[in-house]
Specification:
With about 120 residues, this protein is an all-alpha fold. The protein is about 65% helix and about 0% strand. It contains six helices and no strands. The protein is flat and about 70 Å long. The N and C termini lie far apart (about 55 Å). Mean pLDDT is about 80; it is low at about 110-119.
């Protein structure tokens, strides 16, 4: 037979449930924001669809996909330095110095300067 749970055990369990719910709520808010506006240009999904005549998903997947930026950095890290073009050198050097000047302005507004990059 199991001994009764202590008040501390119950309090800890309740705290864990609260933390999980808070993380879930935060995650849902982030997902909702990502569906509502473009991370790169900050235009709302409604504005993008009205101006372009294309879906927000098309804009996200083919025009301003945040993964493209990550892939570009990975590409620059693999490319020999002597083979970098002018813009590639600019982006690489700023990235290396943890400067975000190479990112589109609206993305810079949502990115903190304290982001740590590993490469």
């Amino acid at each position: 037979r199991r001994p009764p749970r202590s008040t501390l055990d119950r309090s800890s369990a309740a705290s864990d449930v609260y933390k999980r719910q808070s993380l879930r709520d935060e995650s849902e808010k982030i997902e909702e924001d990502m569906r509502a506006s473009c991370l790169i240009c900050s235009e709302t999904a409604e504005t993008i669809e009205r101006k372009s005549g294309k879906t927000f998903d098309d804009h996200f997947n083919n025009v301003h996909n945040p993964w493209f930026y990550l892939m570009f950095i990975a590409y620059l890290n693999r490319k020999p330095r002597v083979d970098l073009s002018g813009i590639e050198s600019y982006v690489y050097e700023n990235f290396k110095k943890k400067k975000i000047l190479w990112l589109p302005y609206s993305l810079r507004e949502t990115t903190t300067a304290s982001v740590s990059y590993t490469h």
